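Much of our argument rests on the idea that a fold can be written as discrete symbols. This step matters because it turns folding into a mapping between discrete strings. The record that follows shows the chain in one-letter code together with its fold in token form.
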Amino acid sequence: MWFKKKVPQEEQKPAQTATAQPAPDRSRDELIEQYRKLHTEKADYGRTSEYQLGYIQQSVMWLGPIKTVLDYGCGRSLVVDWVAKLNDATAYRYDPAIPEYSNLPIEKADLVLNTDVLEHIPEDQLPEILGAISRISPHAFFNISIVQAVTHLPNGDNAHCTVRNGEWWKDKLAEYFAVVREVRSYRPTTVSFITW
């Protein structure tokens, strides 16, 4: 089946603890520009969430009826289309590094997907992103890598600038969501959470 496709191996470095070294200071606009370049140079970059469809749907089916689903940080992934189709919902996309998805299309959604995104956000910018997601919906599915990336940005920086362990991420999400439950993830180098 398409969701059992073999996932490419990534370089696996151990997850850092909550006392990890701070990431280099990156302004939001500079970081978005680095990702625009990366998406231009690598046509398939930003599609790893497609491997997670089965895991996402296993959680979403317990949420109840949804009519709108937003992929926040969608990259080039089609996973939001599949989740929407399986749940008879309307799909929306947002990714500031992809010109055609760079404007937030809705202010509220029944569900927000955020897969393989937060580890790319500098720690000091997480409050802005998590605050925005929590205002869009109390129901979010998060998948977060806890290891360094194989991919480097055009400027040479590792694409994963916030590498923390699962406990740290759960505590961080709990600052913005009343419920945070860890669910099965699609690979041992990531953690997944739902907020319902």
Observations:
- The first helix runs from residue 28 to 41.
